[in-house]
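Margin note: ligand = PRP.
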Amino acid sequence: MSQKYVQKVLLSKEEIAEKIALLGEQISRDYAGKDIFLICVLKGAVIFLADLMRQLKVPVQVDFMAVSSYGAATESSGVVRIMKDLDGSIEGKHCLIVEDIIDSGLTLKYLKENLQSRQPASLKIVTLLDKPERRRVEITPDYCGFQIPDEFVVGYGLDFAEQYRSLADICVLAE
Ligand code: PRP
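Resulting structure:
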């Protein structure tokens, strides 16, 4: 697909890499002496996961979940359905949910409650991007790369109609 709709680069690949190195250091310090069970929320977070996990200095395991929300395609309805669940139990594990972006917060609120009920030893959230202006429910990430304004962003895993995920930078789409 042509990239003529990309308006500007919001975060360059260099800025992203620098931030992920810092997040990796901080998370490694906080989890020193523990193993981390990374729970990646498909699909947008896969590139962030791949880069973040290689910055962690503690042992990690990884599993994936896929969720979809009912209702309008562009806005979360708050009703979340699990399309792919974790392969196994997380009981007693130090779990870290890896997300690409928090918008309304509805997806993560549901996921956090769902995963908490499975009795992990701990459960935290890391997100690369956060749009606090858009929040409809109270949810705060434990680790956040960048707070961004309410603009439609693509690239570095994030899509518009399944396109643009492979862009190296995070870009703003034109109207
Ligand atoms: C995005 C993102 C979060 C969710 C955030 O996923 O990865 O899971 O939306 O929105 P919310 O805070 O309003 O709930 P998306 O549904 O675009 O799926 P994708 O990662 O497969 O592109």
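Residues 13-30 form the longest helix (18 residues).
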